[in-house]
Amino acid sequence: MATPSLDNAGGVHPASQRAPSARDRHPVVxxxxxxxxxxxxALGCASARGGGPDDGRVGAGAVPPAAELTASAQxxxxxxxxxxxxxxxxxxxxxxxxxxxxxPAAGALLAxxxxxxxxxxxxxxxxxxxxxxxxxxxxxxxPLAAGGEALTGAARDAVTxxxxxxxxxxxxxxxxxxxxxxxxxxxxxxxxxxxTPSARPDGRSGVVRNAASGTVEHAxxxxxxxxxxxxxxxxRDARTVRAVHAVAVHEIGHVLGLAxxxxxxxxxxxxxxxxxxxxxxxxxxxxxADIAADEVTATDRAALRVWYALPLGRLCDPAGTP
Length: 322
Known about the structure:
Layout: E1 4-6, E2 12-14, H1 32-42, H2 71-82, H3 89-100, H4 104-116, E3 120-121, E4 135-139, H5 148-165, E5 171-174, E6 182-187, E7 203-209, E8 216-224, H6 238-255, H7 272-281, H8 298-307, E9 313-314
Parallel strand pairs: 4-5, 4-6, 6-8
Antiparallel strand pairs: 1-2, 3-9, 7-8
Helix pairs in contact: 2-3, 3-4, 4-8, 5-6
């Protein structure tokens, strides 16, 4: 079991794992004060109830078959794992996108995710790793007088969205936090992230991963109960519910291992005029830094499929990747 510790850069990582570099500082790997508060709030409670009963709609039935890469992508991943220091992350992601016929945006999202994790594939174990059990997610009931039930439902539906999108995985909403792999809690307000102070301060997430294997072992999501102006969220307002749902979907995407795709850079896996033209045609995705969509898109789904088909561990050198 990994032992979480706080490094000088402020990230959460197993005690034996390297300290994150500047490129690792991201909503998935948070600053010291925010992380300490998050873990004490969300992990300090041994057991809690209030997230609703186990939902048969989420994670029900047989686990779908694990995602498979094309033969060329499998060979490329094996070669990269054998000599990761000789492979640049963006180049690997671009080649994988070509092998798997991904869009430029999906390829760029793969590249950013590899860079975020220091050139490694960091994810939950799934069926391809011999672990058929679903990822168990507990969602705290929103403690709001005005439409709290609707906001709780929005967060739970975010789990359902990724469950439908994650090839070879199951995510299941559970009623008891004691056995949950992912805990979703509400706080009064989420402070702006130091690296992205202009981003919407509506949610934050953090993971604890095993230093030896790179697998995610536990995760926390926090959602704010007030908007950017300090006004309490009103679950009776449909726009508010959609916005909370979008933030929850985005944060769970981080928990599953995906990084941000910076606005205006959807085609970083492409080059020249053709890449710029493709960038102009890419639709918004949920994993963009500005949360440009309100649900999991085909681009998010495609990137996640390949991410969970790749072998765990280091595949490339993040140096030089923008």
